Amino acid sequence: MSQADLTLHGHSTAGAMAEPTFSVPAKKMAMWLFIIADTATFAGCLFAYGFIRNASQNWPRPFHSITNVAVMTLILLTSSLTMLVGVKAAQAGDKPKAFRWIMITAVAGVLFAALHLREWMGMIAEGATLFHNPWGTPLFSSLFFSITGLHLLHVTGGVVALIVVGVRYQGGRYKADDIEITGLYWHFVDLVWMFVVPLVYLLNLSH
Amino acid sequence: MTTAETHKSSGMGKDLAIYLCMLVLAGIQFVIAFQNISAQQMLERMLIVAILEAGLALLFFMHLADNRGLRWFVIIFTVAVILGMQYGWTDSFRIANGVTWAK
């Protein structure tokens, strides 16, 4: 076998090895696999919530107002749009604009978390804890704090990721692809909230 | 305006339209919450709206609409996991409540 053949075979093998699954780069694919796994985590929590709610005799409906959760939803949905603007700017090579919109997204995340914590404080002030609540079965507050807490943890992680990736992108260490992958995670956090709101909040409104 | 700029702005126009659709769908969920219907009907309607909203986010914000292979991989894999979990949960529920096996 000649050197040319070896080189040709070498290239062909390397080409086959480098062909990404579904034409998606490995890092992006890893994020998709994480998103699928995390979907299972949240689905597990929400299924458990549904079964327990259905089986409990004195399930409380403690929410009187939708204002806070409506504002939180608006902020999170809008942050998905600002993230998209940041990703498009990064793909167009406009670093300052991309950095600006990523930071706006991070600020929206902080605002969302602050409103969430304010709501938690209000409920804790009314006597709700992880193992007790004054309205009915203690399982309500256990599930409420667990599910919303898990989501809040994701938002907090997302904010940290946005800041770190944004700063490193601005400094030239990360590329536009990394911004896009962080954006995928942020959209996922928004997507989960679309299911948490109706199941955990709206179904427990007192009429 | 250059061709690239036109392409860029039309792209954002589409994203803005999707964002507005998602806002409207989120609003519909809040309207459903105030309807005088049973909890089961409310749950069904809210879940349908949530799935539509999530579908828009997945297809356009997360760009699954552009990659057919990845789209089916994500859908089939996720639905299989969730359905498998649903089977597990119902069985756990049966065991926890001491319900006998169906005959």
Key structural traits:
heterodimer; A: 207 residues; mainly alpha; Four Helix Bundle (Hemerythrin (Met), subunit A); 6 helices; 0% strand; elongated; disordered N terminus; B: 103 residues; 2 domains
How would you describe the overall organization of this protein?
- Chain A has 207 residues and is mainly alpha-helical.
- Chain A is built from 6 helices and no strands.
- In chain A, helix 2 packs parallel to helix 6.
- Helices cover 81% and strands 0% of the residues of chain B.
- Chain B contains 3 helices and no strands.
- In chain B, helix 1 packs antiparallel against helix 2.
- Classes of the chains: A mainly alpha (207), B mainly alpha (103).
- The interface between A and B is large, with 40 and 42 residues.
Proportion of strand residues of chain B? under 5%
Shape of chain B: flat
Multimeric state: heterodimer
Summed up, the helix count of chain B is 3
Outline the biggest β-sheet of chain B. Answer: none
The low-confidence parts of chain B are 1-10
Largest interface: A-B, 40 and 42 residues
Strand tally of chain B is 0
Question: Quick one: CATH superfamily of chain A?
Answer: Cytochrome c oxidase, subunit III, four-helix bundle
Can you tell me the residue ranges of chain A where pLDDT is under 50 for at least 5 consecutive residues? 1-14
Instruction: Give the N-terminus to C-terminus distance of chain B in angstroms.
Output: 71 Å
- The helix/strand series of chain A, from N terminus to C terminus, equals HHHHHH
What integer is the average pLDDT of chain B?
82
Major β-sheet profile of chain A: none
